[in-house]
Amino acid sequence: MTEPDSAHAGSRVLWTLVSVAVRVFYRVERVGPPLPDGALLLVANHPNALLDPSLVQTTAGRPVRFLAKSTLFHGHVLSPLVRRSGAIPVYRRIDPGVDTSRNTEMFAAVQQALQNGHAICLFPEGVSHASGHLEQLRHGAARMVLTSAAAGHPVTIVPVGLNFDRLPMFRSRVTAMFGQPFDGADLVEGFSQDPRGAAQRLTDRMADRLRELMIEADPRADLPLVDRIDRLYAAARGVSRDPAERVHRRRLIAGGMARLRTADPAHYDAILDDLRIYDDQLKAFGLRESDLDRRMPTGQVVRFLVREGARALMLAPLALLGVFCFAPAYWVTWAISRRAPDLQSRATWQVVWGVPVYGTWIAALATGVGLWLGAGVGIAAAVVLPVLAFVGLMAYEREASVLKLVRAFLASRQTPLRARASLKRQRAAIATVLDRVRDWLEA
């Protein structure tokens, strides 16, 4: 078995650029075992339109080919990139003017790719959405696996859960959870007698495996609450910061709070009231969750400020220069993304439109420098400006983190010890209630 060659997998340069764009836009975390060699079918949830394939490719660790709706291959702004990526077209009933009979070509292309030992990824929900929950899966993925296995070419399945802290937010975190490989070998024999039943059973397994890797919560209404409860609980209990543990914890919190809201709304409202009072008191003292547990002796803070002050002499000008140079391009890209038709498309619009907007802006700046200081300096500016954009972003984030620590120190120094102790007791009481809710749900 061999990996796909460049003609099938698409341009390595293209995927490298895509990976850079994804890692600039998001803080990407990967969790799970490395992908095995040989024929492989990755199945993933689909909350973020065209960025989902980019995230899978960025974190997979081996070349992956994707199934994409046929309407992306012609007449779309991204059609040249889609065709070069090695994607296989899917002819969907919901797309107007599409000949669904051509899906026989799609299944044949997938079977040939799997027979050649390629890795294929598809999104079995069929459409991108921002519901925050796994929608009903289509049977296509299961049929591909069972058809290939029945023909003597077994296929390994790997579920991939894509978890976004804030779906359309620049520099927010996304955790790609790669699950344990499995297959449908025990269903192959029955597939010849009852194709639909075998495909349904394998599809159900895929859904179960995917749900174990996902935080199912509405990204607008519920996910911020899940994030807030998790931060409180993690601070109160001192739990692990490991990404896998965090996703598992938040998955349980999301499921538990959803069940509690339905089964015992009074209890649910009481928890929210306690949390609201606690947050109001934190805000009144100018504190954040992590500030309650920071012990920052004056001597340690002085050494920290001296060390970071020396670094700031270099980094702060870079951060300010980056903001000054690229703020217009950032705001234009952000304004365009607000016109996206739905939440799950907004980040895609920012990345897709960001490339020409930033490219045009850099070209304009370099041209202006060239007209002012000469062609040679203008060419040098065209080379330096993209580097400045990246370095300035990193410098800005580091200096912002330092300022948060300084603010936390000042806020904690101004907060009476008795008030901090009271806030810790309130936090511990809320965490205890959450423990009881978890025990109640488990029972």
Key terms:
443 residues, alpha/beta, Glycerol-3-phosphate (1)-acyltransferase, 8% strand, disordered N terminus
> What is the CATH topology classification name of the largest domain?
Glycerol-3-phosphate (1)-acyltransferase
| Count of individual helical segments | 15
CATH A-level architecture of the largest domain? 3-Layer(aba) Sandwich
Mean pLDDT: 89
Work out the oligomeric state of the chains in this entry. single chain
The H-level CATH homologous superfamily of the largest domain, spelled out, is Glycerol-3-phosphate (1)-acyltransferase
- Quick one: how many beta strands? 7
Please report which band the strand proportion falls in: under 5%, 5-15%, 15-25%, 25-35%, 35-45% or over 45%. Answer: 5-15%
Uncertain ranges: 1-10
Order of helices and strands: HHEEHEHEHEHEEHHHHHHHHH
- Morphology call: flat
Question: Short description, anyone?
Answer:
This protein is α/β, with parallel strands linked by helices. Helix content is 62%, strand content 8%.
Description:
This protein is α/β, with parallel strands linked by helices. The chain has 3 domains: 6-211, Glycerol-3-phosphate (1)-acyltransferase, CATH 3.40.1130.10; 223-285 and 421-442, no CATH class; 298-414, no CATH class. The chain is built from 15 helices and 7 strands. A 7-stranded mixed beta sheet has the order 1-7-6-2-5-3-4, with helices on both faces. It is flat. Residues 1-10 have low confidence and may be disordered.
